Amino acid sequence: MNGWSASDIPDQSGRTAVVTGANSGIGYVTARELARRGARVVLACRDDKRGRAAEERLRAQAPGADVEFAPLDLADLASVRAFAAAFKSERLDLLVNNAGVMALPERKTVDGFEMQFGTNHLGHFALTGLLLPLLKETGHGARVVVLSSGLHFLGTVDPRDLHMEHRYRRWSAYGRSKSANLLFVHELARRLTAEGSHVVAAAAHPGYAATNLQSAGARMEERAWAERAAELLNRAVAQSAEAGALPSLYAATAPGVRQDDFIGPRVQLWRGAPTRSLRARWTLDDRASAGLWAVSERLTGVTYDWR
Question: Pfam family example for this protein (predicted)?
Fold first, then answer.
């Protein structure tokens, strides 16, 4: 992995990828680099205007790229089902579950879930379940990549209070949702292995990368000083979105990625070339991952089919 960069991405010609949250930041860079290597890329984005603008921008930056926008709101399970139903392709090689929200004031999804848990985990759990049959049909080389965070160390999922109704704390909620991402990948990888599937499930995190996530919560609450502080901190210490996308791109395309790998920057969970990353022990707990899986199927109504 030493010095791995976007120039090391293998040829993706003939492959199809779905990237959620591809209208900006890490998701946009991930989609652009996959398209530059020849993949057909679907930009799955919540906002129609921003999604179509991203498609136009990507076409300008990667002439001849095979890209298209498709609406997907992970905070609305009806939208997730509509996206999956409308997705028409003979194959699906890469599902990059990139979209997410960070440290928002207390909000609920359309279906009544805590917004960060509902968007970052449950929406992607449902989407993956609905698209997994096509990934399995594609077989060799197919991968599911889920974007977690080094901040998953802030806390794990509490099955007694999944939606933090007892006491909501925005950063704890974010950490829990990112631990949920890792527990999901752990259980998905375990089940794929048990089935003998050739689909690989891996996770990644960007380190500290400058995106609009850091200031979104402050913007929602109209706390101008906090929004400005986040922007200044990004400029001072964060790495670029291009660098932050490398772990996702590595997990999605590099040879040798294994089931349940967690790829992140090599320097203190913060910056640098991608490598296998540290993770909290609780994200490797079989009992916790199986429990989260069961409750996720119940809450989303999406049941995975296994042979």
Answer: adh_short
